[in-house]
């Protein structure tokens, strides 16, 4: 399944995305960004930010709610915590996953690092979300029923797919 997802992700263009899907993705992107900005003021996000600043390298990816930037992995970590801190992040029932709270922080951080366009960010966000949800749908509820936190299992798949799309990695 992963090779098929990698091939699809690397070949996806925004022109190939149905307008209705792009519209929903834009809503999820804006909603998650708003939730993350609000969440960036919470104690848990503050702890994640402190860890990111202590362990992360300098870079040009924004840590939401601050005037600072870090390397993409550290910014994505801090922003992911902020996106989930208030538990208002979106949910997809394909695998029961809070998808955007993991995919968007990674995509946004990498997009800033590579100076990607808004269209490239949206395409990567869609690719990552679809990858995450495809694996979630294939797993049905088996992960959740066995006690796994599905956002933690499926989210990194989507985040990696979004980052790979922005980095223009091929399927290999």
From TrEMBL:
<feature type="domain" description="MmgE/PrpD N-terminal">
    <location>
        <begin position="4"/>
        <end position="171"/>
    </location>
</feature>
<comment type="similarity">
    <text>Belongs to the PrpD family.</text>
</comment>
<dbReference type="InterPro" id="IPR042183">
    <property type="entry name" value="MmgE/PrpD_sf_1"/>
</dbReference>
<dbReference type="GO" id="GO:0016829">
    <property type="term" value="F:lyase activity"/>
</dbReference>
<protein>
    <recommendedName>
        <fullName>MmgE/PrpD N-terminal domain-containing protein</fullName>
    </recommendedName>
</protein>
<dbReference type="InterPro" id="IPR045336">
    <property type="entry name" value="MmgE_PrpD_N"/>
</dbReference>
<dbReference type="Pfam" id="PF03972">
    <property type="entry name" value="MmgE_PrpD_N"/>
</dbReference>
<dbReference type="InterPro" id="IPR036148">
    <property type="entry name" value="MmgE/PrpD_sf"/>
</dbReference>
<dbReference type="InterPro" id="IPR005656">
    <property type="entry name" value="MmgE_PrpD"/>
</dbReference>
